[in-house]
Design brief:
There is one protein chain. It contains 13 helices and twelve strands. It is 39% helix and 21% strand. The strands form three sheets. A five-stranded mixed beta sheet has the order 5-6-1-7-8. Strands 9-12-10-11 form a four-stranded antiparallel beta sheet. The protein folds into three domains: 160 residues, 2-Layer Sandwich (Alpha-Beta Plaits); 62 residues, Orthogonal Bundle (DNA polymerase, domain 1), CATH 1.10.150.20; 137 residues, DNA polymerase, Y-family, little finger domain (Dna Ligase, domain 1, 2-Layer Sandwich). It is α+β, with helices and mostly antiparallel strands. The chain binds a DNA duplex through helix 3, helix 8, helix 10, strand 9 and strand 11.
Length: 418
DNA sequence: TCTGGGGTCCTAGGACCC
DNA sequence: TCTGGGGTCCTAGGACCC
């Protein structure tokens, strides 16, 4: 059996843990640059604030309904997530951390356990240990545990836990679930399926394998089998990432290549830091730039460039050099750039590096990067920078409603009066 | 005027190789 | 008039997830 543990309204709940006066009040958490809503408490959902709502369009609604608005505080959410995952790992040797607020547990060898009781105890322990409410779905396959989780979340009388352990329950649950709410069926697929008269998850499982594969590729077919109760999707080992990206939208458009170069360099540095944390080297790097797609009145341009590195590297200096070469090859003057990013891929673990006969990553960088990482860890991000990076002012996102770093900065730890 | 960021997997077409 | 087959790599894009 698989259990899916999913935090309820995770970012909003994190804010609430340290501001309990907000219990029962509408909360919205905004994306970077305070752009759009990425998390909402139940109360905010009830007011009619959709996922992804642009903040500037909903400003009046926020004010009128006294919505408590927060800028995304990823240090806080990441730290709370680690605490929750660490608790969950006590409950099964096989855990897949699926996202910041979700984890699958594989319950192999739990035949003689009362799984409902087990789930209730997990739920209680997480809430006691962190203050975050969670819902738990248990079923014979991953995608069915997603379905069970949805039922647990939707119906409060379940006590936040739902178990699909019979064929009867499986079919009932699938008939209840609208096709667009199936894990792996997004907007585009749902529209196409509705047009075929497929309205529920159950209908989807009744389609022929051949048709599903033709229309939705092997991915859709796997999903169909998994929903039918045949375990097809297994826990993914996501310890090591396959890609690492740093991308940003700019508050103001950028037109000059020097400014863009500074941003790209900073993104490349950030990617290399993440790569070193993963103890890997990369063999490929990609840079992309594009104009603001929302501005239909402006000429649009978007382009990316992949560079295959002549040798594996995780040195900030080297990755910045390659990123700049890539940028220069795709930059066209005359456009207003709104967004850019650096992606790295094709990783190898640091202990499996094949040396190149002619050219290798500068061996001196290894020690240098260690020192830089150590200094930045201790004194704050970006304290030590490359000279190509902005020295005068650190680029700032709009973050007007940032809550304190309650769990990761000593000055921000709350004081309790006894 | 303002409308996020970081991932995954799959497919298709063109250029090129032998 | 007739003009192969089997690959790889790269670029781009589409779909999905949270």
């Amino acid at each position: 059996m698989f259990a899916l543990i999913d935090c309820n309204n995770f970012y909003a709940s994190c804010e609430r843990v340290f501001a309990p006066n907000l219990n029962g009040k509408p909360i919205v958490v905004l994306s970077n640059n305070d752009g759009c809503a990425i998390a909402r408490s139940n109360e905010a959902k009830a007011i009619g604030i959709p996922m992804g709502a642009p903040a500037f369009e909903f400003k009046d609604l926020f004010v009128n309904h006294k919505v408590h608005v927060f800028s995304a505080n990823f240090s806080l959410y990441g730290n709370m997530s680690n605490r929750i995952m660490s608790i969950l790992s006590e409950y099964s040797p096989e855990v897949e951390i699926y996202s910041i607020d979700e984890a699958f547990l594989k319950l192999k060898g739990f035949e003689y356990f009362n799984l409902l009781d087990y789930a209730y105890s997990i739920r209680k322990r997480v809430t006691q240990g962190t203050g975050i409410p969670v819902s738990i779905g248990i079923a014979p396959t991953k995608s069915l545990s997603k379905v069970a989780n949805r039922i647990a979340k939707k119906y409060t009388q379940t006590g936040g836990v739902f178990l699909i352990d019979t064929e009867e329950k499986r079919i009932k649950a699938l008939k209840w679930l609208a096709i667009e709410d199936v894990w792996g069926i997004g907007r585009k697929y749902a529209t196409r399926l509705r047009a075929q008269g497929v309205n529920t998850a159950y209908d989807f499982t009744q389609l022929s394998d051949a048709w599903v594969k033709k229309e939705f590729s092997i991915v859709g077919l796997r999903l169909k089998r998994d929903l039918s109760g045949i375990p097809t999707l297994d826990l993914d080992d996501v310890q090591a990432k396959k890609n690492i990206a740093t991308t940003r939208s700019f508050e103001k458009n950028i037109t000059k290549i020097e400014d863009l170069k500074e941003r790209i360099a900073t993104f490349a540095v950030s990617c290399s830091e993440k790569l070193r944390k993963q103890k890997s080297y990369c063999k490929m790097l990609m840079v992309f730039i594009h104009t603001n797609g929302f501005r239909k009145d402006l000429p649009q341009y978007s382009r990316s460039r992949v560079i295959k590195l002549p040798f594996p590297s995780n040195s900030s200096i080297e990755l910045v050099e390659f990123a700049c070469i890539a940028l220069e090859s795709i930059f066209i003057a005359g456009y207003s750039y709104k967004k850019a990013g650096v992606l790295i891929m094709d990783f190898i673990p640091e202990n499996q590096i094949q040396l190149n006969f002619f050219q290798n990553s500068n061996p001196k960088h290894e020690g240098l990067m260690k020192v830089i990482d150590k200094l930045n860890n201790r004194f704050g991000q970006q304290k030590v920078r490359l000279s190509i990076q902005d020295q005068k002012r650190v680029w700032k996102m709009k973050q007007e409603k940032l809550s304190p770093l309650y769990t990761t900065r000593i000055e921000d730890v709350i004081t309790i009066q006894v």
